[in-house]
Design goal:
Keywords: Lipoprotein, Membrane, Palmitate, Signal. The protein has about 280 residues and is an alpha/beta fold. Helix content is about 40%, strand content about 20%. β1, α2 and β2 form a beta-alpha-beta unit. The relative contact order is 0.18.
Length: about 280
């Protein structure tokens, strides 16, 4: 081969290689974009491990790819960090909270978040390692209760519903006010306020504890173990997907919200939690 021909051949190889590299670079860039048709959008979603994380994992493994979504599930053990992480942009959405909790936190923290419709409900329950009937709760009994205000109000309402407290309807009361009032607290119950995940571990230290469904599940409890259970009728405490109102991934987030309200997810919830510890809310 002449020197001239060898130079042409080398140039052709370089040109083809450059095109191949350009193609790879374009594919890589498009994979994280939301713009062009056929792109895969990665969403980082914060969630409580159970049931939220399990539901999201089902969506990730079975439904998300068809909608051009790649889910990265970030698990949180508390109710504070998921909203803080959403505000900072470390995650794109979160799935762990109720609308009343979101509204209360938004007033305090100035969050500018949007949310979808209810996805599921985890009935709040009263649990005990010492008693088998709510009627056996004695005067001055110790009650474990969550320490965040919104879920605390929900717990107080359940205690009132089963007759352990006497609260006026729609009262905006905290534990300290209730505990100090003989009118509201005729049995003189003693309240122990703890972090949500610690409630299940505190059962041996209290007479009863009011425990959120996800924390009860994490501790191996289900509604059949409760001595009293929250009603699902007209319950505002359904769990929702939440996202930043100014997110640049709104289209992808709304696709995820639609998947979380799909027939497939409803069937998954009903099959995975036949004990009704998790109930579809749509």
């Amino acid at each position: 081969m002449s020197i001239r021909n060898r130079l042409f051949a080398a140039a052709a190889v370089v040109s083809v290689s450059a095109l191949a590299l350009a193609g790879c670079s374009s594919d890589s860039a498009d994979s994280s974009s939301q713009g062009a048709s056929g792109d895969t959008v990665t969403l980082k979603v914060g969630a409580s491990p159970t049931p939220h994380g399990k539901i999201l994992t089902y969506v990730k493994d079975n439904l998300a790819k068809k909608e051009g979504l790649n889910l990265e599930i970030v698990e949180f053990q508390d109710y504070v960090q998921p909203n803080a992480s959403l505000k900072s942009g470390d995650i794109d959405a979160n799935f762990f909270q109720t609308v009343p909790y979101l509204e209360e936190q938004s007033k305090k923290q100035g969050f500018d978040f949007d949310h979808g419709e209810g996805i599921h409900l985890e009935p709040l329950g009263i649990y005990s390692s010492k008693l088998t009937d709510i009627k056996d709760v004695k005067d001055a009994a110790t009650v474990g209760i969550i320490n965040d205000p919104t879920n605390q109000a929900r717990a107080l309402n359940l205690l009132s519903h089963v007759g352990l407290l006497k609260l006026p309807e729609n009262a905006d009361l905290n534990v300290a006010e209730v505990a100090a009032s003989r009118e509201y607290n005729p049995k003189n119950l003693v309240f122990l306020q703890v972090e949500g995940p610690q409630l299940i571990r505190s059962l041996d230290d209290v007479d009863i504890a009011v425990i959120n469904g996800n924390f009860a599940q994490s501790g191996g409890k289900s509604p059949k173990d409760a001595i009293a259970l929250e009603s699902t009728e007209n319950n505002p405490s359904v769990n929702v997907l939440v996202w930043n109102a100014k997110s640049d991934k709104l289209e992808a987030i709304k696709k995820l919200d639609a998947l979380l309200h799909s027939d497939e997810v409803r069937a998954y919830i009903e099959k995975t939690w036949p004990d009704k510890s998790v109930l579809p809310a749509f």
